[in-house]
């Protein structure tokens, strides 16, 4: 509100379902302070009552058309480590400059138009830095002609020749991703998954655990991050390809959510991501094949029930 009072145009778009606990008084306060804030939701009406699944999971910040921020961070107390059961919170966000910021603005503008039927003002600089990292913004959503998000993960895994490391808070893969992970193991690729050791949603955690055990038995190295809740979404392929964004390794991100990933091809940046992920793996516990076989029957039953409804989790 301070910046809005200075005359800066502030546009805030929030997902209505994900922000169901957001007080109306808080929204009114922002509007009264000059902030243009809107809810992203499917259109109302009886015919659309089943479309609450189509949620905006993207996290975008653009400042003056010069800088952009994207990744896994939402705006909330838990993301600042203020909710003890999940603290400390582990996430990854990235700052970008250059032409890709225009792509971020375009993605936000499309989402804003969806919610308001109006286009926000766009700010494009006269010139961009000439040096930098080769990158591409990958947007996906339920309206895509192809299942863009699922295809991205499948193609990234198939492209790996030496390694593919993936971190995600949820692991509910479809058959194509499961097959891609298994084939990567069979051709000698170092396949690793980093998942949280603490649940934020118990049913999702149960379903993810069963899929994780299946992956371990297929030869995938699966780790549980122990210091706090792991929410980052990062993919590292070989020594030059990385992806950072909002998409989880689950059906909701594959087919239901509006998602955003930044794909980069740069060995120096990939080296930084390797160091970051190596530090995370060093703070994690690896799930053994023996552990995957020794789960109590009652727990196995709960995981299998959760798995039955996993396509809509």
UniProtKB/TrEMBL annotation:
Report the GO molecular function annotations: cardiolipin synthase activity
Q: Which GO terms describe its biological process?
A: cardiolipin biosynthetic process
Record-linked PROSITE patterns: PLD (PS50035)
* Signal peptide span: none
Where the record annotates domain PLD phosphodiesterase, the positions are 52-79, 226-253
Q: Name one Pfam family in it.
A: PLDc_2
Gene3D superfamilies assigned to the protein according to its UniProt record, in alphabetical order: Endonuclease Chain A
Which GO cellular component terms, listed alphabetically, does the Swiss-Prot or TrEMBL entry include? membrane
Q: What superkingdom does the record give?
A: Bacteria
| Name by which UniProt lists this protein | Cardiolipin synthase A
Q: Which organism is it from?
A: Pseudomonas amygdali pv. eriobotryae
